[in-house]
């Protein structure tokens, strides 16, 4: 016995609405411009698009000369840090729907580092400060070649500062760094914290002496800009305060 099955017409896929957003980007071409200039672009986007998607559409469809950094596009590499509506963010993690799309979206390079082109800055001064704090484990050989053991409590002591992706969002949001290019900056101090409070490390005092310099932790004015800017949620200002306490009272 056969059963007739009525043909069912598949339901039409619901179209995802798009809208037009205006991005106003601070452009700079060293071969042409004496000073940076603002340029606006209208882009058709989905609400779930990210600012990075908008920049891609502009570069691929409107102006191939637009220059910016990006690599993983998933908030891990930290290469696409920029100022979006006056705040340091990662373009790959900033959703268009989380911005006020009734107004233009302003995008510019992070501050305090030499501007090279459009949204790209020279990161060398940032990495120079990072290198100065010896961002690696300083420990002698273990007896018998055994591993260096660490309890969960000891590991948790510095867990927060292991999350740094060196995007420079914290450092380039710091007013002191903007005006004093010699200041180590929050990211360098965060990475020093990661090793200062590591129970396996033997170079804590070396780092504390470095950060006790006039351009070290004492330049911090506790404005919390760095904590607000961190895309990984690191309690940057707290880490700086803990390093200050370790300098005064010694490592606990």
From TrEMBL:
UniProt KW DNA-binding keyword: no
GO MF assignments: 2 iron, 2 sulfur cluster binding; 3 iron, 4 sulfur cluster binding; 4 iron, 4 sulfur cluster binding; electron transfer activity; metal ion binding; succinate dehydrogenase (quinone) activity
Class in the EC hierarchy, top level: oxidoreductase
Pathway: Carbohydrate metabolism; tricarboxylic acid cycle
Superkingdom per UniProt: Bacteria
Reactions the enzyme catalyzes: a menaquinone + succinate = a menaquinol + fumarate
Annotated 2Fe-2S ferredoxin-type domain residues: 30-113
Protein family per UniProt: Belongs to the succinate dehydrogenase/fumarate reductase iron-sulfur protein family.
Record's protein name: Fumarate reductase iron-sulfur subunit
């Amino acid at each position: 016995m056969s059963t007739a099955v009525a043909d069912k017409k598949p339901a039409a896929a619901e179209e995802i609405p798009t809208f037009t957003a205006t991005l106003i980007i601070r452009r700079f071409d060293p071969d042409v411009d004496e000073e940076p200039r603002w340029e606006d672009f209208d882009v058709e986007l989905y609400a779930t698009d990210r600012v990075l998607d908008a920049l891609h559409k502009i570069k691929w469809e409107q102006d191939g000369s637009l220059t910016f950094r990006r690599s993983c596009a998933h908030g891990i590499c930290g290469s696409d840090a920029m100022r979006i509506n006056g705040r340091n963010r990662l373009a790959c993690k900033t959703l268009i729907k989380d911005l006020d799309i009734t107004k233009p979206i302003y995008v510019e390079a992070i501050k305090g580092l030499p501007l090279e082109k459009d949204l790209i800055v020279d990161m060398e001064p940032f990495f120079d400060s990072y290198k100065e704090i010896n961002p690696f484990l300083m420990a002698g050989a273990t007896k018998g070649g055994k591993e260096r053991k660490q309890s969960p409590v000891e590991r948790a002591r510095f867990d927060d500062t292991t999350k740094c992706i060196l995007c420079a969002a914290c450092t380039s949001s710091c007013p002191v760094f903007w005006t004093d290019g010699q200041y180590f900056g929050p990211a360098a101090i965060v990475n020093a914290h990661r090793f200062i409070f590591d129970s396996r490390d033997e170079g804590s005092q070396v780092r504390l002496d470095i950060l006790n310099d006039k351009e070290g932790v004492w330049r911090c004015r506790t404005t919390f800009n760095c904590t607000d800017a961190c895309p990984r949620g690191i309690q940057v200002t707290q880490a700086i305060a803990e390093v200050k306490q370790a300098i005064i009272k010694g490592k606990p």
